[in-house]
């Protein structure tokens, strides 16, 4: 709505309005604000266009509900529209019904709904205010321009605009909050062009993270009308800031903005689709090249990201990610610059080393600001020293120099990237329920590779389908693995120390009402529901697994072996594993007693009825990956599961994924020493190396996890039908189909959920394809999988696993 100022009669106002509207070009109205004319936030119109229609100025909605506004200049023809200037950066948002008025004495005055002036421009004498086709908002007097927005830049420069010595750009706080942010680009009076992080709210500068290192008088930053950006030195030299002139203004809208993440980027937007690049804002230049790498300092300030978080440019330089360490979370998800806090309590007066554990993350560091420094130490010592110290939040190990640094909160200037070459040990609380567990030691750097080995012990043939057996036995010699081997010295723990109960067969017979209610049946035996009396007088539900009695193996050695293996399973404690409560070993009877999982298996959850919400599925996938990471890398004796599949993942009351049946491959091996052909695992989930004479490593679990991850994302079974025939229609095999969809860019065929979280779903699929690589060496370790799923590191385009597929199809 246009309101009239005090000097105009209603009649002359109508005439003016009419003239303005008839002068509209292409349906857009544009004009100058003359003295007495007012625009109102939320009114109609609340903005005017430049003659070309490319720029608009007026009231720009600052949120999707139009509950607040900016007085701004923006690109009107692009999608999204992009604000290039706004008034009063200290407090830019205005309520509905705010007005802007060219006063009778020729000043531009911005007033809130009560009429109080919030901001003003010019010192009087202007006869008109107008937006030019350059995006410059000018106040024109009788003799020329009296004031222009190009002289008071906010976070953006436009072609034709100059940042003279002494002037600066200031970033926004976040992309959506236009208040003064944490970074500044200054064309300093001393002739240097510098990017600084700033302290909020005062704005004092911390150590710079980029500069031209120039000096002299008269230097200025020029955004030439031809699209080039350079720093023009007083002596006539031009220091280029972007690469050149490839984006002529006739064909591209363009701007250069100091973004809220501290990067100065040049953006272009093709004016028509034939110019190429897609109808979107594309980044064509930036300074600094990699801000995560560039912005580090001994001094104060949190760095690019907030305290305790770390900076990742792995997703591409145009979207810097700030990430919380494991078991930390953002204080405010919408304002990640506020940093992360621990999701657990760490206080010295209550400190118990055994309540904490370490999560290793490669190539992560918070450089500087350490409070202890050790030399000539190994990785294990570096981790242990942090565990022993109640102040320590993180220790950083540098393998090359055998050095270790301890860090306290808050952590600053964190970054992850291949250039870092450090391993961080993040100290986190163990699950509260498992406080009595022995402390695991960190896994050595190269552990994943060194431990690959093949031990010629055979396992049971556990495959249900004869067709599949035929397939796998074609001319291959198959060696069986031992999922883990431990050294004798680690076996010296008493059963009571582990809180493992021994049960008599009779007890379990009673608990299960003589094995009445069968819960499931798997490769190792049958599982029954049971009820145990508990100390409080109530009862406790359990799952009792009666192991198949394979072979006759009742010699002393195998008995000891059984007890040892059960203890080793009993030592594992992780919130994503099903907990072993106790066991029974009487004569030839072997039974294991587990906690009862009320929500059944992932198989039923995924395929049993209605498609579960994506959020639940995603968190289940993360839980499984973390549980596997614990088995592979964090428990004192690494355990390969060998039979990862949805049936072996159970869900507890809170729908937390719990891996079941781990450690059993090892447990039963004593029964099968005579066989030399055996494949552990289940049809559809087994890694190709099972069919070849190749070493079986942890990567077999990564493969199976990849298959399951595709199932979780798509809610489809890998093998759509349980056919007995060898020939499975190719599109019924999810793995093949998923890669085909990925290759041709049609993941939408695979993912049926709404568009909401598409990026994350696609990331999960990409990670799954990495897990499905034929060459186990190409598959990521499970900890890398966890990091990729979390979004902490970029996921590269995976190689074609089709050779794998070919060999399986033969
Ligand atoms: C708007 O003001 C500019 C600068 O004062 C002037 O050149 C132009 O003719 C005016 N346009 C209209 C439509 O009044
Ligand atoms: C938008 O409006 C809805 C409904 O009035 C309200 O619930 C929501 O909080 C508003 N959002 C913002 C960002 O103001
Ligand atoms: C923007 O951030 C400032 C500072 O934290 C805050 O006071 C203001 O309310 C925020 N504005 C919006 C629109 O969220
Ligand atoms: C201008 O000054 C810069 C450094 O300040 C120097 O590198 C350059 O050579 C000078 N150019 C001329 C033409 O003197
Ligand atoms: C689109 O861009 C091309 C090349 O930049 C130009 O030749 C053509 O005239 C443009 N078309 C329109 C409709 O603007
Ligand atoms: C973040 O913003 C979204 C939408 O703007 C809102 O629904 C949500 O409540 C906000 N979260 C927090 C923690 O403020
Ligand atoms: C774990 O311990 C913390 C601190 O003692 C407590 O706040 C939290 O509720 C506990 N969590 C569980 C699951 O018991």
TrEMBL record:
Enzyme Commission designation: 2.7.11.1
InterPro entries, alphabetized: Bulb-type_lectin_dom, Bulb-type_lectin_dom_sf, G-type_lectin_kinases/EP1-like, Kinase-like_dom_sf, Prot_kinase_dom, Protein_kinase_ATP_BS, Ser/Thr_kinase_AS, SRK-like_kinase
Keywords: ATP-binding, Disulfide bond, EGF-like domain, Glycoprotein, Kinase, Lectin, Membrane, Nucleotide-binding, Receptor, Serine/threonine-protein kinase, Signal, Transferase, Transmembrane, Transmembrane helix
Location relative to the cell: Membrane
Signal sequence segment: 1-24
Any one Gene Ontology molecular-function term assigned to this protein's record: ATP binding
Binding-site positions, ATP: 545
Catalytic activity: L-threonyl-[protein] + ATP = O-phospho-L-threonyl-[protein] + ADP + H(+); L-seryl-[protein] + ATP = O-phospho-L-seryl-[protein] + ADP + H(+)
Topology within the bilayer: Single-pass type I membrane protein
A Gene Ontology cellular-component term: membrane
KW Phosphoprotein (keyword) present: no
Transmembrane segments: 455-483
Domain Protein kinase, first and last residues per copy: 513-796
A Pfam family the protein falls into: B_lectin
GO biological process terms, semicolon-separated: response to other organism
Domain Bulb-type lectin: 30-152
Stated family: Belongs to the protein kinase superfamily. Ser/Thr protein kinase family.
Name of this protein: Receptor-like serine/threonine-protein kinase
UniProt organism field: Zingiber officinale
């Amino acid at each position: 709505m246009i309101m009239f100022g005090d000097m105009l009669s209603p009649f002359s106002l109508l005439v003016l309005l009419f003239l303005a509207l008839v002068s509209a070009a292409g349906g857009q109205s544009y004009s100058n604000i003359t003295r007495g004319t007012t625009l109102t936030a939320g009114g109609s119109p609340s903005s005017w266009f430049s003659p070309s229609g490319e720029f608009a100025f007026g009231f720009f909605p600052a949120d999707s509900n139009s509950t607040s506004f900016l007085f701004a200049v923006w690109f009107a023809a692009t999608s999204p529209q992009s604000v290039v200037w706004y008034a009063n950066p200290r407090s830019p948002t205005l309520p509905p019904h705010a007005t802007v008025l060219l006063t009778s004495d020729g000043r531009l005055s911005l007033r809130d709904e009560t009429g109080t002036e919030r901001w003003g421009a010019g010192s009087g004498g202007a006869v008109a205010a107008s937006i030019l086709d350059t995006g410059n908002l000018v106040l024109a007097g009788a003799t020329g321009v009296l004031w222009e927005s190009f002289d008071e830049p906010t976070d953006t420069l436009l072609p034709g605009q100059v940042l003279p010595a002494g002037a600066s750009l200031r970033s926004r706080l976040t992309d959506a909050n236009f208040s003064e942010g944490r970074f500044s680009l200054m064309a300093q009076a001393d002739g240097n062009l510098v990017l600084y992080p700033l302290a909020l709210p005062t704005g004092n500068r911390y150590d710079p993270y980029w500069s031209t290192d120039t000096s002299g008088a008269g230097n200025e930053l020029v955004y030439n009308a031809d699209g080039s950006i350079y720093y023009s030195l007083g002596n006539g030299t031009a220091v280029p800031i972007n690469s050149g002139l490839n984006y002529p203004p006739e064909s591209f809208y363009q701007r250069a903005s100091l973004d809220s993440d501290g990067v100065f980027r040049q953006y272009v937007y093709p004016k028509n689709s034939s110019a190429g690049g897609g109808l979107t804002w594309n980044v064509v230049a930036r300074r600094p090249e990699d801000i995560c790498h560039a912005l580090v300092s001994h001094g104060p300030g949190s760095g690019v990201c907030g305290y305790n978080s770390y900076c990742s440019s792995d997703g591409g330089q145009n979207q810097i990610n700030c990430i919380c360490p494991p078991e930390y979370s953002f204080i405010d998800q919408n304002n990640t610059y506020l940093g992360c806090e621990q999701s657990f309590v760490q206080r010295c007066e209550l400190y118990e080393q055994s309540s904490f554990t370490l999560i290793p993350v490669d190539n992560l560091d918070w450089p500087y600001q350490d409070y202890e420094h050790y030399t000539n130490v190994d990785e294990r010592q570096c981790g242990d020293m942090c565990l022993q110290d109640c102040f320590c939040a993180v220790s950083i190990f540098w393998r090359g120099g055998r050095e270790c640094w301890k860090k306290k909160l808050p952590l600053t200037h964190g970054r992850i990237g291949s250039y870092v070459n450090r391993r961080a040990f993040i100290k986190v609380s163990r699950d509260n329920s498992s406080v009595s567990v022995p402390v695991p030691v960190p896994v050595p750097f190269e552990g994943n590779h060194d431990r690959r080995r093949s031990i010629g012990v055979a396992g049971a043939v556990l495959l249900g389908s004869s067709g599949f057996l035929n397939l796998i036995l074609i001319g291959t010699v198959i060696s069986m693995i031992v999922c883990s081997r431990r050294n004798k010295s680690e076996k010296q723990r008493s059963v009571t120390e582990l809180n493992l109960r021994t049960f008599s067969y009779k007890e379990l017979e009673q608990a299960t009402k003589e094995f009445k209610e069968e819960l499931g049946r798997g490769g190792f035996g049958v599982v029954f529901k049971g009820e145990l009396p508990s100390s409080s007088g109530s009862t406790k539900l359990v799952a009792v697994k009666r192991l198949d009695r394979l072979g006759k193996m009742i010699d002393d050695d195998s008995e000891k072996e059984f007890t040892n293996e059960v203890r080793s399973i009993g030592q594992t404690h992780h919130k994503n594993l099903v907990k072993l409560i106790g066991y029974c070993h009487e004569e030839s009877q072997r039974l294991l007693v587990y906690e009862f999982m009320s929500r059944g298996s992932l198989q039923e959850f995924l395929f049993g009825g209605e498609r579960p919400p994506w959020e639940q599925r995603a968190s289940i996938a993360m839980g499984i990956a973390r549980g596997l990471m614990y088995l592979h890398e964090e428990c004192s004796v690494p355990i390969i599961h060998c039979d990862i599949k949805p049936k072996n993942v159970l869900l507890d009351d809170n729908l937390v994924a719990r891996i079941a049946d781990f450690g059993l491959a090892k447990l039963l091996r004593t029964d099968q020493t005579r066989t030399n052909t055996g494949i552990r695992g289940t049809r559809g989930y087994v890694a190709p190396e099972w069919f070849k004479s190749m070493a079986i490593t942890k990567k077999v679990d990564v493969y199976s996890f990849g298959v399951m991850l595709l199932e979780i994302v798509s809610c489809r079974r890998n093998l759509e039908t349980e056919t007995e025939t060898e020939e499975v229609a190719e599109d019924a095999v999810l793995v093949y189909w998923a890669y085909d969809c990925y290759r041709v860019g049609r993941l939408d065929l695979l993912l049926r959920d709404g568009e909401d979280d598409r990026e994350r779903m696609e990331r999960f699929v990409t990670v799954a394809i990495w897990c499905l690589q034929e060459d186990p060496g190409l598959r990521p370790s499970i900890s890398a999988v966890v990091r990729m799923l979390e979004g902490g590191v970029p996921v590269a385009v995976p190689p074609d696993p089709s050779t794998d597929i070919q060999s399986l199809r033969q």
